[in-house]
Design brief:
Elements: E1 11-16, E2 39-45, E3 57-60, E4 66-70, E5 73-79, E6 83-87
Amino acid sequence: MATIKPISEDLVIAQVEEADNKTESGIILPDSAVQRPQYATVISVSDDHAKTKPGDTILIRKHAGTEITHEGQDYLVLHINEILAITGKA
């Protein structure tokens, strides 16, 4: 679990699912050709945040958030307006 927590109730810390860099036919794509997935898992929210909770899978805008690295892990800091929906995807 992340030891990072947003201080604003409008921010969420999320971790984006890894993009698959291999096509169904086995061709390996360069990083520049791989699109970032639009699904992320909520890792941390502020104490005052009530719309999402850690563990929720969310649908985000394509170029949403600010990418950060904390304790060797990559995360996105998202504003609540960049979250399009909470999904039932596991």
